Amino acid sequence: MDFLTIIQVLDSTVRLATPLLLACLAGLFSERAGIFDIGLEGKMLMSAFFSAAVAAVTGSVWLGLLAGIAASLLLAGLHGLASITFRGNQLISGVAINFLAAGMTVLIAQDWFQQGGRTPSLIGGGRFGPIDWPLSETLANVPVIGPVYAELLSGHSILVYVAFLAVPATWWVLFRTRFGLRLRAVGENPAAVDTAGVSVVGLRYAAVMICGVLCGIAGAYLATALQAGFVKDMTAGRGFIALAALIFAKWRPWHAMWACLLFGLLQAIALRFQNIDLGGVVIPVQVMDALPYVLTVVILAGFVGKAIPPRAGGEPYVKER
Amino acid sequence: MDKMPKWADVVLIPLISLILAAILSALVILGIGEDPVAAVNMMVSGALGSTYGWGYTLYYATNFMFTGLAVAVAFHARLFNIGGEGQAMLGGLGVALVCLYVPWPHWTIALLAACAASMLFGAIWAAIPAYLQARRGSHIVITTIMFNFIAAAFLNYMLVNVMRPVGSMDPATARFNETVHLPTLHELLAPIGINFSKAAPANVSLLVAVLACVVVWALIWRTRLGYEIRAYGHSETGALYAGISPYKITMIAMLISGALAGLMAINNVMGEAERLVLNSTEGAGFIGIAVALMGRSHPFGVFLAAILFGFLYQGGAELALWTNIPRELIVVIQALVILFTGALDNMVRMPLEKIFLALRKGNA
């Protein structure tokens, strides 16, 4: 395996890690506030469809992005309604949202475009194009640093950079602002937050909505940057891999980035090499597919440090008995 | 004192939730420019208008009874088993191994063996998440989700690399032997003079599913173990105080749940496909969630809800065949049912409780 191959695999790692990272940070906000969210997948899918559909109709990818975020927010609102206002089971609500998105996207796609549940392919302004960093052409021939700069850092779509900038931003919001402190407190001990005179419901809705926005960006990235258009079930379990990454990272932003990069790397390797031959021992591609989940189970089992979720996660807050 | 009479809790709330889901589904059909009344008519005639339709409806219902019971048993112990899909996949592997590599003299013995194998494989797949929940405190919902994906990858590997017949491109096992063919409803009903459709896949597994409903009912409400499971589900601390081991109940409830989900394979793998294919479960494990919620985790409720979903599935297939409405409409309906009967339960319950309280005050 030569240097250029490594760079190419790492490059596709970054591309594949981006939707995971956005969804993972989305889940981070929600779960830190005590709202479990297994509906990341559904929100991404809904956003992927509406961003691609609106981008295809209007020819503007930015309008598509807005539409995707709006669609994702709608589902986030539904999740909030079920799990905060009506104190329902957050896990069941998440399951419902995943199915709702899986069904509605195909239904609407068929109605609007009649192409068997997909949108037309996006061209030109309908997609997020790569952003070339200054001098990447000239530097490309410099050994080692050139390819790293030109291939790995430069030439991604803007949403990739948004995703990676969202990591320090998330860290800063959660750990350096009053809002973040309260948000984390509401996931650990909502009664204390309530006693301090801060609205538990308001904070949780805020967290769920931030989650919706990030999932919206993740879905839009899938349909308008990573690929050119929406196809049925295009999220392909990424919402759950993001969930796995979140646990893997033990609900911390920087660790979330590394976990998503690791899972992105696994996807990139599986995509490029299929079955890997390690001197006689062949690792089948399915092992690479299953590895994120196996790793998460190992982490969950507490064999490699214990993953402790926010204490009030999954429990609706009841003010008085 | 209960806020509501029991019948309201058991019948009225699911009914209202169902009506809400139906109204929204009708709006969705209207939204994509089709006629909801015509769609319902077509679904009824397609799913219930002929023995062919009934055969498919009952075939799907058989799947959903198994997975619905699986989710319901776990619900009684307040465990949410989302892993029915993976457990059913593994059950399929068990059935395939038994049917392919053992020369059975007669289908009855083969069915018993297949039941045992599918239950064993399903239970094993549920055992690991159950152990991790009971002993290491990892959340069962997350682990069962992960195990669904691991099961899919594992089955993919087995079918592509191990069990695929030489020379075949299709990632599936060879066809099972003729002797393990399960009698379909056509073959069962022909001797007593009922001419049931030959093409429909409903088979003797339906009887096994009904039997499973009865057994689960007896287990939950008529045995000591069932009492312990329900007690644990109601209050973990209360159960602990009564000397019930949380570890034991978590493990047993999940093993039963996994075994029931695995048992589904006798219907879809042995009864219908007669070989193991990729994605043989077709999401039935997830529909079990809707079925269990709709049926209020009671075996009889699960039985009715499974037939309702069987009807929706077959009706939806007919719609997709004859109209512009894609099959995914059923996924939407399923989502709405889960949403209203599961997540938004309080939205229906709270106003109803107020009404009943007001009525009671009026009477007193």
TrEMBL record, chain A:
Pfam families given for it?
BPD_transp_2
Q: Write down the superkingdom of origin.
A: Bacteria
Which keywords, in A-to-Z order, does the entry hold? Answer: Cell membrane, Membrane, Transmembrane, Transmembrane helix
What transmembrane ranges does the database entry give? Answer: 12-29, 49-78, 90-109, 158-175, 205-224, 256-275, 281-304
Q: What is this protein called?
A: ABC transporter permease
Cellular localization per UniProt: Cell membrane
Record membrane topology: Multi-pass membrane protein
UniProtKB/TrEMBL annotation, chain B:
Q: From which domain of life does this come?
A: Bacteria
**Its membrane topology:** Multi-pass membrane protein
Query: Where is the chain membrane-spanning?
Result: 12-33, 53-75, 87-104, 110-128, 140-160, 199-220, 249-270, 302-323, 329-348
Q: Where is the signal peptide?
A: none
Q: What InterPro entries is this protein classified in?
A: ABC_transp_permease
Enumerate the subcellular locations listed in this protein's record, separating them with semicolons.
Answer: Cell membrane
Q: Which Pfam families match?
A: BPD_transp_2 (PF02653)
Q: Does the keyword Transmembrane apply?
A: yes
Record's keyword terms, sorted: Cell membrane, Membrane, Transmembrane, Transmembrane helix
Q: What is this protein called?
A: ABC transporter permease
